[in-house]
């Protein structure tokens, strides 16, 4: 600064003029530096935005590819379901006569079987018959109802059942306690034990049983009612036509 003052004194140049002359380039340089910094910041922002846009583009492409795979898989599933539906229609056409055959077989079975729970079993058959005659019921539901009837009939072929009811024996109406072992045998005994009988499916009715089985029948009834501990019993297994 002292040199500048000496120079100004020697030349007669105004100090302010020199200061202004020197300050202008400095200010311009500072402005250029600010602009350069702003430009760098702007470029950094643009670069960041470009990176973000590029990432979004990659993500979008990934999602599009994923959706395309899903669409392809769904189209394959639709094609598979269409084939299955066509097969179901074919099966349904084949199933309808089979259901009729099964109904006829169940009807024959109930009619020829021991007459236990007759009203209940006939009611199930009527309900299934109505299902076959109702065009609004799908074949799948008809088949489900058929399986239900069959399962119940199968279940009734197992276990033991004790019940009190009247029977017709030699033209007389007799009150008895009966013991049914599935579909294997159906025995009955009067309260005083004087009447013992078995149901003959071939005959379609009750027949008198030898009195020697009275004790075994009484024990079987008690065991089935949990009134006596289980033990082996010599129960009769009547053959068709046995008297």
TrEMBL record:
UniProt cross-references to InterPro entries, sorted A to Z: UCP028069
Domain of life of the source: Bacteria
Coiled coil residues, start to end: 64-91
Pfam families documented for this protein: DUF3450
Keywords for the protein's UniProt record, in alphabetical order: Coiled coil
Protein's UniProt name: DUF3450 domain-containing protein
Organism: Ferrimonas aestuarii
Lineage: Bacteria, Pseudomonadati, Pseudomonadota, Gammaproteobacteria, Alteromonadales
